[in-house]
Amino acid sequence: MKKLNLVLASADREYAELFMHYVQSSEFVHDVMMKSFTQLESFRYYVQHEPSVDLILAEEAFLAGDSTANCACPILILSEDTRGQGAAEAEKKIGKYQPLHVLLSSLLLHYGGERISSSANGGNAGRTKVISVYSSAAGMGKTTLALNLCKQLTLQGQRVFYLSLEMLNGSALIMEPSRSPQAVDSDNRLSKLLYYLKAGRRMEELLAEWNGMKSRGPAMSFDYFEPLHNLDEMKQLNKADTCQLLDLILQTGAYDTVVMDLDSALEERTLAALERSDQLFWLIQDDALALWKTEQVLQYLELQQSSQEVSALLHKTCFTVNRFVGQMVNAVRSPRIRVGAYLPYIAAWKQIEQPHVLLQAASFQSAVMKLCADEGMMQHG
Hints:
Blueprint lengths: L3 E6 L3 H13 L6 E6 L2 H10 L5 E4 L16 E5 L7 H5 L1 E3 L4 H21 L8 E7 L6 H14 L4 E5 L6 H5 L13 H10 L4 H6 L14 E2 L6 H5 L3 H13 L5 E5 L6 H9 L2 E6 L3 H17 L2 H9 L1 E8 L14 E6 L17 H13 L7
Parallel strand pairs: 1-2, 1-3, 3-4, 4-5, 6-9, 6-10, 7-8, 7-9, 10-11, 11-12
């Protein structure tokens, strides 16, 4: 799990300093990063302008009025009296004077539960979880991670659909080793489906024909669409088209998880997919240019979207370092980029003759399995 970005607000300066010192000098330093405030105005300004906050722990005096009006993160009340008028109110209160290791452990448990439950209780009522893999630059390993996620989730007994929204979709070369790179499906089923969606064909009719639209390769245990051979069809996919396509997959009721492989370009379909995702794995790597591009994309999103939208996006994002060699040479400068997971560098993948080997590296599969477990993905279904 990524570090908890905690904000503490207490008028008791001595308590706030003690809390901060304990976090920084204990084992919790690996799990929690925090800021503390003793003044209402500075607290209000920070939480209204900082979208990366994961959890607020504040005394009631700091929560009056509109101080947290734009916050999408959970808020807990730091109180000497943990009794409430009802069970729901009591659950939102955290005892101020308890051992700090107990208090922090309860905060981490609450944070983990919130992330899993908020993903499971998204727009599709928890029946189908939508996971996306994104990076701000091409060649970062999105498709490799997305397909390995599909593989691991199916091995856990989940029913999975893989949806690639990349302009250049090379996934078939990985999933179907015998497929020729020049092979073209003259009667592309996804192309036909996109035509039907734009023509306004009724969802009931499309659901009735679903089995004839999806594909499943001989070596795979999950469903997907054949890649489009007319790139313009993917480029012309707008927000409404993307949402309709995803809704169709969800309404089949046939899947526990949809894994979306996103294009790096911030086209409408990518932005729609980011919004509709329950969980997002944002790939970065130890490369100065790649990190700079990630920071630029985040700045762009902050200009184009509300602080609540950016906060909601960051709350469901696990920044994941791919091709990790044991330590980072380049510093991650943006406080919004908090690394939550690492995937190993595989030397054998430096030059690949047969793309299907990308699904066969034991160390990478082990790291993906750990990623699934840490992010609560194996508890779904």
